[in-house]
TrEMBL record, chain B:
Domain Ferrous iron transporter FeoA-like: 3-75
Gene3D superfamilies according to UniProt: 2.30.30.90
PANTHER family (alphabetical): FE(2+) TRANSPORT PROTEIN A
SMART domains reported for this sequence: FeoA (SM00899)
Protein name according to UniProt: Ferrous iron transport protein A
Protein's UniProt keywords contain Iron: yes
Highest taxon above the source species: Bacteria
One GO MF term: transition metal ion binding
InterPro entries from the UniProt entry: Fe-transptr_FeoA-like, FeoA, FeoA_core_dom, Transcriptional_repressor_C
Keywords annotated in UniProt: Iron
Annotated coiled-coil segments of the chain: none
Keyword Protein biosynthesis tagged: no
Organism of provenance: Desulfatitalea alkaliphila
Length: 732, 77
């Protein structure tokens, strides 16, 4: 049987609603795992959409950013409004939080003013009922002339009815009802009318949007609508803008306030009329579990300690629980390496696969479990509603840096790994906050830098190593605060986003939704970082492996042959037990390998680069070997240690660390130059995965380059100050 | 007697008389339903004395102290 509604066309259904209205839950219920996550064009606001089949018809569900309003004050609101205006979705479903009717209706009335078909999903009726509220659904539908469907998003109730209502409305020929919209007071209506007539007279046929709506927006001084109208109107726009200006002045004079404030006030007036008719609240004491939970969680005395405990627990979980699968992945890569080593013939390809690809990707892939766990915890914080409390608790401190309380979590995560930390800035609403947080997060010393400090501090500061490392971490924190303040007062001046933030009721998270959130973000890590890391490690490998002076390798072969020959000769003599001779031979061979590697590394492009950049590193007390190691750290910071190991030709076993420390001390480095190098490692150029994350999350190559140049420049300056300053006061 | 919302003590409530400030902040405050004549309850101050948690129209909203100082209120209870 064929459905009468069946058409070939894909219907676009947009989901609009306030933050915390349960919009995401409904979206997840509708689309399940068939989601595509990307960005809205040109901005870093997350765009989610999913295709589903319904009654033999394909529906494209687009999740608009959660907003309280459609005024163009935040990037989210602009994105949501432009989608409705320019992409003309067939239907907009507005998710109304029944337990917060008045505020939800504010967005709803704005949607009704736009020229689009709207269905209301009256969500979270269960919460409203528990709070003693009763809503007359039929009345609400009648008063706003909009189909209303009751839903309980997290129990899948009403979802099918909602889709049916949306599809029916999309197919109906009924025009968008013009009545039952907000009526403003006579003065405002007169102004709208006058402007509307002007618009009709001057711009008939070319006006991009509904004339009444355009008139209201011009009276509200809406810059985006002004631009659009100016773009189509050309010369004829002048008269319209003049009328708008006069009407605005008239209204401002008449009401002694800005016209956009008057319209906001009037909308709420209109809404309270509706609410009075549809909502009855019983007198009994409302059950407000959230409020009771907050008596503890945002308590004056225990609130912060509990918060720090949660954060501590998150880190514990991430790094201790994550350590197990980390070992497995490491073992897996080890197995892969030995299998490839066995399968591939000696030569360049084998070196590329083993030392380039497997080594490079392996060092990053081991972070995957940590990232999964970390994102799971973050999703838990977000979905329960605790994230808003974290921001509430930390805002005072973060505000000192010119940031929002929510920036605390990404910055803290920076101590673990900068990649998920930078990705976690997606939880911030303001674009400026997001970019600023991204720029200062790399100064939070990530866990991959720790091995470098351990080697250097261990070699030169002995028992005081712990204190020195602590000072390094502290330097990073102070530096990021200073940078935040500097940028806030220069690059991002006056752009501090208002803190007005809802503390939504606590909710029991849905497992499925947690999984989807976790996976969405981790997928980005796997896909993008995988690609970039792969290329990056191949490039560094190539730099370290070419050119290959034949002379070195010939000498290596000759030497190896000599060792083998000597072994055979002595084994034939048989006055020493064979195993002992074999051991001696192996030691000699591996020492030869190390010497050759060190020679190769020195002669390679990377080595020449290191030598070439010696004048750059010399003033900060780092020699060419340190320079090469630092350059190689671009792939991943841990590599700094292994590169130093190669360059100092220390043995490749358990005691590497001690051997390397010994070699470093013998190389002429001092405590002061070690300190300078650690400061440099702390602040300089983030690793390739982080740089890629910065590029992705700021959506701009320029910010990425800025971050790279700023961090490296500052690292050099700071290291220079430490080294030269130390020498002046006689520490060197 | 009119005072700033930031001067209202925890546990008290007051009626909004005027929302000052400008631009995005003012608009945002108004859009959250904090309009003239609406009663707001000061639920609590954050442990570090900033921001403030308010209850407006049954919704919990937090504002920074400097932002709350832009809101003039009356009729404290």
């Amino acid at each position: 049987m064929k459905d009468p509604h069946m058409t070939e066309r894909v219907l676009t259904i947009a989901l609009a609603g306030n933050p915390n209205s349960g919009k995401t839950t409904i979206f997840n219920t509708l689309t399940g795992t068939r989601q595509k996550v990307g960005n809205w064009p040109g901005v870093t606001v997350e765009k989610k959409e999913g295709l589903i089949e319904y009654r033999g018809q394909t529906l494209k569900i687009v999740d608009l950013p959660g907003t309280y309003s459609l005024t163009p004050f935040s990037i989210e609101e602009i994105v949501a409004r432009n989608f409705i205006l320019d992409d003309h979705p067939d239907v907009v479903i507005d998710i109304i939080d029944a337990s917060n009717l008045e505020r939800s209706l504010y967005l709803a009335t704005q949607l009704r003013e736009l020229d689009c078909k709207v269905v209301f999903a009256l969500n979270m009726m269960d919460v409203a009922t528990a709070r003693g509220a009763k809503i007359d659904v039929a009345k609400l539908s009648e008063l706003l002339d909009v189909p209303v469907v009751q839903t309980v998003g997290n129990r899948q109730k009403g979802i099918d009815d909602l889709l049916a209502a949306a599809v029916d409305l999309a197919h109906s020929n009924k025009p968008v009802p013009q009545k039952r919209k907000v009526r403003y007071n006579p003065e405002v209506e007169k102004a709208i009318e006058a402007l509307q007539q002007d618009l009709a007279a001057q711009l008939r046929g070319i006006l991009p949007y509904h004339p009444r709506w355009t008139a209201i927006k011009l009276i509200e001084n809406d810059t985006i609508v002004q631009e659009r109208v100016a773009a189509v109107a050309g010369e004829k726009g002048a008269a319209v803008f003049e009328t708008a200006r006069r009407q605005r002045e008239h209204l401002a004079d008449r009401f002694n306030d800005e016209p956009e404030i008057i319209t906001t006030d009037e909308r709420y007036g209109f809404i309270s009329g509706i609410v009075k008719e549809v909502l009855t609240t019983s007198i009994r004491q409302r059950i407000d579990i959230s409020r009771n939970i907050d008596l503890v969680l945002t308590n004056r005395i225990v609130g912060l300690p509990i918060f720090f405990f949660f954060i501590w627990a998150m880190f514990q979980l991430t790094f201790t629980l994550g350590a197990y699968p980390q070992d497995w992945i490491e073992a897996g890569f080890g197995l892969l390496a030995s299998a490839m080593g066995y399968l591939l013939p000696e030569g360049l390809l084998k070196e590329l696969v083993l030392d380039g690809i497997i080594q490079g990707v392996g060092t990053v892939a081991v972070f995957l479990p940590n990232i999964l766990i970390l994102f799971f915890c973050i999703a838990l914080f977000e979905d329960t509603g605790y994230m808003a409390r974290a921001a509430f608790l930390m805002d005072k401190i973060m505000h000192l840096v010119g940031l929002h309380g929510k920036s605390f979590i990404p910055m803290l995560m920076g101590f673990g790994c900068n990649v998920p930390a930078i990705m976690a800035t997606r939880t911030l609403e303001s674009q400026t906050d997001r970019i600023l947080t991204i720029l200062i997060t790399p100064f939070m010393s990530c866990s991959a830098k720790l091995p470098v400090y351990i080697i250097l501090a261990g070699a030169f500061f002995g028992a005081k190593a712990g204190t020195v490392i602590f000072i390094i971490y502290l330097t990073g924190i102070v530096f990021s605060i200073a940078t935040g303040r500097l940028f806030r007062s220069t690059l991002f001046r006056g752009a501090d986003a208002p803190f007005v933030m809802e503390l939504p009721p606590y909710r029991v998270p849905m497992f499925k939704s947690l999984m989807i959130h976790m996976w969405d973000r981790s997928k980005i890590f796997i896909k993008r970082m995988g690609g970039v890391i792969l290329i990056g490690s191949m490039v560094v490998w190539a730099l370290a492996s070419f050119p290959r002076p034949a002379e070195i390798h010939e000498r290596h072969a000759a030497e190896a042959a000599r060792i083998e020959a000597r072994f055979e000769e002595r084994a034939a003599g048989a006055d020493i037990p064979r195993p002992e001779l074999e051991a001696q031979r192996d030691t000699a061979l591996s020492e030869l390998d190390r010497r050759t590697q060190a020679e190769q590394a020195e002669q390679s492009l990377l080595g020449r680069l290191g030598h070439g950049m010696a004048p750059f590193f010399a003033p900060i007390g780092v020699d060419w070997r340190g320079g090469i190691a630092l350059l190689s750290g671009f792939v991943a910071k841990e590599i700094v240690v292994s590169t130093l190991g190669v360059l100092y030709a220390v043995s490749d076993d358990e005691s590497t660390d001690q051997a390397l420390q010994h070699a470093l001390r013998a190389s002429g480095m001092t405590g002061l130059s070690a300190m300078a190098m650690m400061v440099f490692v702390l602040l300089y150029l983030p690793c390739v995965a982080t740089v890629a994350a910065i590029r992705r999350e700021t959506g701009s190559v320029r910010w990425m380059l800025f971050s790279v140049v700023y961090s490296t420049g500052m690292a050099w300056l700071m290291a220079f100050t430490v080294y030269q300053g130390g020498r002046i006061v006689g520490l060197g | 007697m009119s005072v700033r919302l930031s001067e209202v003590k925890q546990g008290h409530s007051a009626v909004i008389e005027r929302v000052g400030g400008s631009g995005a902040l003012r608009r945002r405050i108004l859009e959250m339903g904090m309009l003239k004549g609406v009663r707001v309850h000061v639920e609590k101050y954050a442990p570090l004395k900033d921001p403030i948690e308010l209850i407006v129209r049954g919704m919990h909203v937090s504002l920074r102290v400097e932002e709350a100082a832009e809101i003039i209120v009356d009729d404290i209870q």
